[in-house]
Design a protein that fits this description.
Layout lengths: L1 E11 L9 E11 L2 H31 L1
Antiparallel strand pairs: 1-2
Keywords: Cytoplasm, mRNA processing, mRNA splicing, Nucleus, Ribonucleoprotein
Subcellular location: Cytoplasm, Cytosol; Nucleus
Pfam family, one: LSM
Length: 66
């Protein structure tokens, strides 16, 4: 599978005391994924879509109760 215009984000924790974690990101124009990665990515996206749809459904119920 090929993903286009991907923003990869991660956090790096420096070694040593009193060092704060640093958020990093990079832009990838084309990313080629193998089968195991694709399943994980699609699963996360599907789960996110279900949560968003459920939230919108709940908001609609709350509006109708007023």
């Amino acid at each position: 599978m090929v993903l286009e215009n991907v923003k990869e984000m991660w956090t790096e924790v420096p070694k040593g005391n009193n060092k704060k974690p640093v958020n990093k990101d990079r832009f990838i124009s084309k990313m080629f994924l193998r089968g195991d990665s694709v399943i994980l990515s699609e699963f996360k996206l599907l789960l996110f879509e279900k949560i968003v749809n459920y939230t919108r459904w709940l908001e609609g119920l709350l509006r109708n109760e007023d």
